[in-house]
Amino acid sequence: MSMTTPPPTPGGLGGPPGWYPDPGTPTHERWWDGRAWTGHTRTAGAPQPPAAAPAVTAPVPLAGAAGHGGIGKGAIVALVTAGAVLVAAIATGVVLLGEDDERTAPQSAPAAPSAQPSATGNVPEPGPSAAGDPDVLVDQLNGISLPLLDGWQKSSSGVDPVPTMVTAGSYKCPGDSAEFCRHGTVSSRTATVTNVKSPEKLAGQDVGIAADWAYDNDRVGNRIHGGIKGHELVKSAPVTVAGRTGHVVRWRVTTGAGPGGYVQSLVFPSAVGSESLIIVRFAFDAGPYAPPLADMDRIIKGIRPLTDVSGGVGSTVEP
C-alpha cells in the first residue's frame, strides 16, 4: 500500500480521518486526514484520546486539483472537516484535563483547631487559691500558706512587717513594760542580709534573733519580760516542709519577769523563684494560758505551697 493509497474500507473508499496502520512501517500508525496520508506517526497500539487529532500544519495537494498546485474544492472540504475535528479534540481534552485535576488535586489540609476554648468545652478550672482562705496565713512572697489553728488569728497590727499570726487575746507584758503581749506568735519571712545557704546553720543563727524579738525587746525596741536571762537547747533536727528539706531549732528561754517561753526558728528553701531560704519564727509562752508546744509541729506539718492548699507535696514525709 503506497503513502497515497487510502486505507482499505469495506466499500473500497478512503476511511474517515484517524490513525491507521502505516503502509510503510507496520509497527507504527499514521494519521489519515480523510483524503490522504499525513506526516504524523505514532507507535501502534498507543492509547488514543477520544477524537484526538494532530495539528494540521499544511494542506496536502490532491492529484488532479484545479489550478497550478492550488487547492481544489475537495481539499477545502477536507481541511474544514479536519479543523472541526481538531477544535472538538482540543475542547474534549480541556474538559477531561479539568476532570482529572479535580480527581487528583490534593485536598486542602483541615483547619487547625482553635486555641481558644469553647464556652461549652470541658476546660479545667484553675485550682483553689489560698489567698482568700480565712483558715490560713498567706505568705505571697515566698509562695506558702500556714494553717490557722483553733485559737489563732491573723495579726492586724501595723507594726508587724511580715505575715504574722497570733493567739487570740492579749495581756500586759511582765516586768516594767506597758506593752501588751500575746501568748503565741508565728511569722514568716525571706532570709535576707545573709550568705548562709545551709538551713541548719541559718536556723541555729536565727533562733537567737527570734528570742530577742519575743522576750528581750519588742518590735519597737521596748524591753519586755524583764529581758532574757538564759536559754536551753530543746530541739535541733531536720524536717520536711511543703516537700522541701529544712531544719528546725528550738530554745527554752528564761526571763527576768514572767514564766519565759519557747522560741523556734524553722528554715527551708522556697519552691518559687531563686529558692531563697524561708524563715518561720515561733514564740510560745511557757505559762498556763499559752498554746501547747504540739501546735509548733502541727503548724509545720500544715505549711503548704500556694498551689496546693489541700495537702502539700511531701508534707507528711519525715526526713
Task: Write a structural description.
With 319 residues, the protein is α+β, with helices and mostly antiparallel strands. It is 18% helix and 28% strand. It is built from three helices and 15 strands. The strands form four sheets. It has a seven-stranded antiparallel β-sheet. β2 (28-32) and β3 form a beta hairpin. The chain is rod-shaped and about 140 Å long. It starts with 17 loop residues before the first strand and ends in a 14-residue tail after the last strand.
Strand order within the widest sheet?
6-7-10-14-13-12-11
Please give the oligomerization state of what you see.
Answer: single chain
Task: Return residue spans where pLDDT drops below 50 for at least 5 consecutive residues.
Answer: 56-71, 94-98, 101-128, 309-319
Rough outline: rod-shaped
Structural class: alpha+beta
Could you spell the SSE succession in H and E letters? EEEHEEEEEEEHEEEEHE
Radius of gyration: 51 Å
- Which range does the strand content fall in? 25-35%
Number of strands: 15
Mean pLDDT: 75
Task: Note the total helix count.
Answer: 3
Largest sheet: 7 strands, antiparallel
Portion of residues in helices?
10-25%
Between the first and last Cα atoms, what is the distance in angstroms?
108 Å
